[in-house]
UniProtKB/TrEMBL annotation:
It is found in: Golgi apparatus membrane. This is Conserved oligomeric Golgi complex subunit 2. It is a peripheral membrane protein. It holds the Pfam family COG2_N. The keyword Nucleotide-binding does not apply. Residues 34-61 form a coiled coil. It comes from Oncorhynchus mykiss (Rainbow trout). Belongs to the COG2 family. InterPro entries: COG2, COG_su2_N. GO terms for biological process: Golgi organization; intra-Golgi vesicle-mediated transport; protein transport. GO terms for cellular component: Golgi membrane; Golgi transport complex. Keywords: Coiled coil, Golgi apparatus, Membrane, Protein transport, Transport.
Length: 107
């Protein structure tokens, strides 16, 4: 998963959040070595807003696809129901052929 690119001026590396072993205490301790808590808070808030905007854009993009999917599926149940009868008949024919085939080899 790719996170949105944050401003170059952030006091942290955004990719650290995606690490399996991410530790918030270690993150804060590392950042405090370089900047004051107030600057870290401001950068985190700025990046949070950017993440939130990216999430809304992603939802809106995928929502249109979701709505189109449901529109495209209208009538699909009728088409599937129309196939069930011929498929049932074909199944019976295959079973009958298999039965005759088995009987033929027994005799």
């Amino acid at each position: 998963m790719n996170l949105p690119k944050g401003p170059d001026s952030l006091c942290f590396d955004k990719d650290v959040f995606m690490k399996d072993d991410f530790d918030v205490d270690q993150f804060v301790a590392d950042c405090r070595k370089h900047v004051q808590l107030e600057e870290m808070r401001e950068d985190l808030e700025m990046y949070y807003k950017q993440l939130k905007t990216a999430m809304v854009e992603l939802i809106n993009k995928d929502y249109a696809d979701f709505v189109n999917l449901s529109t495209n599926l209208v009538g699909m149940d009728k088409a599937l129901n129309q196939l069930s009868v011929p498929l049932g008949q074909l199944r019976e024919e295959v079973l009958v052929c298999a039965l005759f085939h088995s009987i033929f080899f027994i005799l």
